[in-house]
Amino acid sequence: MPTFKDKLKLKWDENKFVCVGLDSSDFSLLQKVVDQTYDYVSSYKINSAFFEEEGVKGLENLKKIIQYIKENYPDIPVILDAKRGDIGNTNEAYASAIFDDLGADGVTVHPYLGKESLTPFLKRADKGIFILARTSNPGAGEFQDLEVEGKPLYQVVAQHVKDWDENGNLGVVVGATYPEELKAVREIVGDMPILVPGIGAQGGDLEAVLKNGLDSNQQGLLIASSRGIIFAEDPKKAAEDLHNQIKEILKNV
């Protein structure tokens, strides 16, 4: 079975970098979006919060949309944006639920409790584990910019993630709204995948993201857009437009 990274690499080789954020619990809407955008994406990122909000019905729809993508577009990896982070045995339960029951290919997690607590995720060598480093929200710097031995904390986190990557399955999350920080993280993590939310509604600069975030192979990015695609009048055109904008910028990078 291909790993998360295998699937992602194939998409990058096709010059596909768009990660569509499925930020809704409306299964019919998301099914339509997936069917219209699959030709232009590297991956789908599903935010679990919108489904959890709906209770049991929402969790059923979460499982349905993941299964729908896996059955109809098995070459496209699915990341569950769950931002999990807890002590080890709790993370064992989270990892089992996300990967074994729901069937996701990747997940976002918090680093705050350290490597030991994240072991249930890190050991899943066939999955993609994206660890928060420099997030896209306006208040991100409250902790992430604190200096630790002369470096901002987000850079320390990035270095730890690089050191933890024994199975070659880790990545980091860096917001598109912080391109200079993205550049610093890329220099630390090398060719590790970087998930970049914040393009579109949050106002991230696409050209700056590409110039600062590409790896040594001119790949390495999952550029996430959610509301700008799924709630567009024509989701297919919105995804195609973003895909084409990326291709055009890449010609000059």
UniProtKB/TrEMBL annotation:
Record's catalysed reaction(s): orotidine 5'-phosphate + H(+) = UMP + CO2
SMART domains documented for this protein: OMPdecase
E.C. number(s) listed in UniProt: 4.1.1.23
Keyword check for NAD: no
Keywords for this protein: Decarboxylase, Lyase, Pyrimidine biosynthesis
Keyword Aminoacyl-tRNA synthetase attached: no
Family listed: Belongs to the OMP decarboxylase family. Type 2 subfamily.
UniProt-recorded name of the protein: Orotidine-5'-phosphate decarboxylase
Organism expressing this protein natively: Candidatus Daviesbacteria bacterium RIFCSPHIGHO2_02_FULL_36_13
